[in-house]
Amino acid sequence: MKKLIFLxxxxxxxxxxxxxxxxxxxxxxxxxxxxxxxxxxxxxxxxLILQVRYEGNVSDFGWIVPLPSVPDxxxxxxxxxxxxxxxxxxxxxxxxxxxxxxxxxxxxKQEQVxxxxxxxxxATNASLLIQWAEKHGYVLPKGIDEAVQYxxxxxxxxxxxxxxxxxxxxERIKWLNEIDNRIKNVSDAEKYLTIDxxxxxxxxxxxxxxxxxxxxxxxxxxxxxxKWLYHEYWGWKSYEELKTWMYxxxxxxxxxxxxxxxxxxxxxxxxxHGIYAIDKHDLIDRICYRIYEDIKEGKLYSESIxxxxxxxxxxxxxxxxxxxxxxxxxxEENVMEIVKSKIGVEEIKYMMHRGDIQPIEFIFKSNETVYxxxxxxxxxxxxxxxxxxFSDKESHPKNYEFSVEYSNWVAPEDxxxxxxLSRIIHKKFYLTKLRAVIKPEKMDEDIEFSNxxxxxxxxxxxxxxxxxxxxxxxxxxxxxxxxxxxxxKIK
Length: 491
Fold this sequence. Notes:
Elements: E1 4-9, E2 14-15, E3 35-42, E4 45-52, E5 62-67, E6 72-75, H1 79-87, E7 105-113, E8 116-123, H2 126-135, H3 145-153, E9 157-163, H4 165-179, H5 186-202, H6 211-215, H7 225-234, H8 239-243, H9 247-261, H10 263-271, H11 280-296, H12 305-309, H13 314-325, H14 331-343, H15 345-353, E10 360-365, E11 383-391, E12 395-397, E13 403-410, H16 421-424, E14 429-438, E15 449-451, H17 452-457, H18 463-490
Antiparallel strand pairs: 1-3, 1-11, 2-5, 3-4, 4-10, 5-9, 6-10, 7-8, 8-9, 11-14, 12-15, 13-14
């Protein structure tokens, strides 16, 4: 049976410069800590997703990640970390050949992955690797020699990364040009994609027929961006749809009125308006439905019950009328905002402004779950480590002390409303959320994981042997008891 582990964790150290500094925000999981990662381990294959924060100039940014084998790489939507924050708010391997070049460092491959220019290298000596990195424009921290040599001796390779925004933009424009050949730059993309998307909505095209599907604008069961744009253009026609825009205003007003005048007086007031309800909640729903009917019939504000009950101003009522009929005059601004997010340039600039870096995914061979914490000690200060461990049972680090903040089963139906998580969680997992603050002098080894049972026994019990042993012990205990009981009676 395959051992399956999927964990979100804090990993590795990015460097803004040789003496780069990183800061923490403790008010929300998604902004804690400076480094986060996802690890998915399945029968010798690992998927590692990393995101970090930094200070300083982008041109000075350098990042080194040790890996046990040569990876494939992809960029990842940062939304996955936000979704997990919300979700938890309660054999020997053959690498195939000699990688080393004449200078002790071999460039295995180089790719543009999102905003990163990534070089995968192998080295025989830490000093040679650092010299090679500096020669090729990578900024690495001082004092990294020992940690790099540690991973070289383990026969690992290294991913060296630097940010290249211009290359990223060129890659995006090339992709967008395949969708609309008029697109030559970012301005063209914003202009033509907005026009194309509004046209598709006005023609009532299905999602699969629309340019929205090519851009990856989601069309979820509840109101994803495509459905939301469609309803904003054509209107929120059903009662349940329009109710969402008035329900809480009515509820707030009814509860205040009941508190001020008393339940019976309020109920009598609405009976005069022909609204009969069995309780407060029924009354709120019936008032909302009457307002919906008035809007559907095209009544003016003065003719509507909204005017009589005095919970809505004429401006509030007109807002609901616009929601029902559609707000086509304002749709361009909303479409443009979503188009910009899918182009990705504005989003990347915003992330960079606040110090966040686009996540990157590595997929590689490994004979165990890899969490190289040792290199994090180079940060030179205590690091807050946040782990989300998805496994078949509760999991804990063997060699570090962590507090447990969340421990429960998570099934696919639990994440169906999460855009990114729903794509990767296809079976039931046990989720353990762990947190620790670790000082650099304590980071003398990588984190090893064990399940809950292993923590107390050291090994996983074998049920095929333990059950017979229990049975034998029980029978012997019974026979000894009976013999003792017989002797007692003779006396």
